[in-house]
Specification:
two-stranded antiparallel ribbon, 8 strands, alpha/beta, 8 helices, 2 domains, 263 residues, 42% helix
Amino acid sequence: MQIAPLNNQVVFKKLLSDEEILKAFIKDFLDIDITPQSIEVEKKFVPPIGGVDFGIDIFVDDPIHRLIIEIQRERYDYDFDRFWHYHIASQLELVKSHKEYKLERTVYTIVWFTRKIREKQYQRSLMTTSQVTTTEQEESLILYPHQLFFLNPFYLNDKTPQGLKDWMTLVVESVNNPTNPNINLNRPIIQKAAKLIDDDGLTPKERMAIIDERDYNNMRRKEWENGRIAEKQEIARSLLAEGLELTLIAKTTGLSIDELESL
């Protein structure tokens, strides 16, 4: 069996938009039984909430829960702000009028990072943001039960919650060892997940979408890298104008001496 890589949004959305897979994952992770009324891919709010017309990868409502699931391969400087916006906007959308401020659903936003990241402080398998209220007596109150999670399976460790391990292993193996994945096939739900993303079972349309996304991500990465280089060059020009030594500027900016001389 060769499984398709789950660092591709097309494959990831195919996996977690399957109702049985989704329910099993949420039960394992959050210990919540959900009964989806709808599972939408690329959900947009109409009209947009706030100043950004964003799309949510997987959007799920049931009578008492709302799930926002995002897959993010790259790690950009603005990611935490962006997904906080998604999380808050998904709560605001529940407020229908000034007479209905009480939110009818608890919102859980789950963001999957599917590659290693450069910042050491974020190299964790699970980061959880809970909206906790404290009193002057150092009491903690849960006035707002909504939670935002960042998951990164590439930092799986002995402290990772047990319910995440099978799913995180599936993601990592799909990327690092797709032809012979070492996953928990003793669990029928993991068997089903592997079968669902079996590379041989991908349709021509899915294969084309995977290629299109890969090309788009490569283009975005190149644009971002070019932007970082341009920023470093601008800093270097300012330091050169101040008369600093080339070796110091190279150390500060990460540019080579040859690159600095060309400026």
